[in-house]
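Design request, tokens follow.
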């Protein structure tokens, strides 16, 4: 079974940075595109970024220029660097591959 385990969340100040990690097991990691989603309290799940097998990256306008997604296929690990954090970035962040999703890691941004 595919397993995704996120880490790296926490409390950060507005304008600060955090780096999230997601370790994937149970699947050939480098054969698949992977991505990040987030869900803020009371809001819908929102796509945050994706990276394909060629390491091409994709972002919505809400995070473009601030977040950086990357992957290390040798470590079966996906990363998300969050920069210039805003209070609106407060959410549970999930990594996802196909229909599988991790348990999430909480990011809280204080202003």
């Amino acid at each position: 079974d595919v397993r995704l385990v996120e880490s790296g969340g926490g409390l950060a100040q507005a304008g600060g940075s955090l780096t999230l990690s997601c370790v994937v097991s149970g699947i050939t990691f480098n054969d698949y595109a992977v991505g990040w989603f987030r869900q803020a309290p009371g809001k819908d799940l929102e796509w945050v970024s994706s990276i394909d097998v060629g390491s091409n990256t994709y972002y919505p306008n809400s995070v473009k220029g601030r977040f950086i997604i990357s992957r290390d296929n040798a470590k079966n690990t996906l990363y998300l660097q969050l920069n210039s954090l805003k209070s609106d970035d407060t959410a549970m962040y999930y990594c996802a591959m196909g229909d599988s999703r991790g348990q999430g890691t909480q990011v809280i941004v204080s202003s």
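Comment from the thread starter after seeing the answer: thanks! The longest strand covers residues 18-25.
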